[in-house]
Design brief:
Elements (H helix, E strand, L loop, with lengths): L5 E6 L3 H12 L4 E7 L2 H9 L6 E5 L7 H11 L4 E6 L4 H10 L3 E4 L4 H12 L17
Parallel strand pairs: 1-2, 1-3, 3-4, 4-5
């Protein structure tokens, strides 16, 4: 029996962090990283070419198109894709703003591997439909 594969994308402007996160996720059973991108614009270019992941792990602060702007566009253009914002900021107002804009998860950059895995597994269970549920955030504090 084959384990269903969760397809992911990693978006961060810091190459070392992006490669490290990709290596971590690649070690999780049933998960594969389809691609990496350095900012939201590069992510959208991949999506527009038809490479659609189930979950996107994305930095908040990036050049060109940041995480908040990208979440807004994802909600409108690719509502089936789940987004987890990864940031070093833990202000409740910021997390509430990301929730309101459509982010499905939130992790601090110092999250443990187990927290990353748990956040991915959590957001993949959120159902899509005509009226999406209020996004639930997995916050590592």
């Amino acid at each position: 029996m084959t384990v269903p594969s969760i397809r992911l994308a990693v978006v961060d402007d810091h190459i070392l962090f992006r490669k490290g996160l990709r290596a971590l996720i690649s070690g999780f059973p049933g998960m594969e990283v389809l691609f990496e991108a350095g900012d939201g614009q590069e992510l959208l270019e991949h999506l527009d070419r038809g490479t659609i992941p189930d979950v996107i792990l994305m930095d908040l602060q990036m050049p060109v198109l940041d995480g908040l702007q990208t979440v807004r566009l994802l909600r409108a253009q690719y509502p089936q894709v789940r987004s987890i914002i990864i940031s070093m900021h833990d202000e409740p107002e910021l997390i509430d703003s990301l929730r309101a804009e459509g982010a499905h998860g939130y992790l601090l950059k110092n999250a443990s591997p187990e927290e990353v895995l748990g956040a991915i597994q959590h957001v993949i269970t959120i159902k899509t439909g005509p009226t999406p549920p209020r996004p639930l955030l997995s916050v590592s504090l």
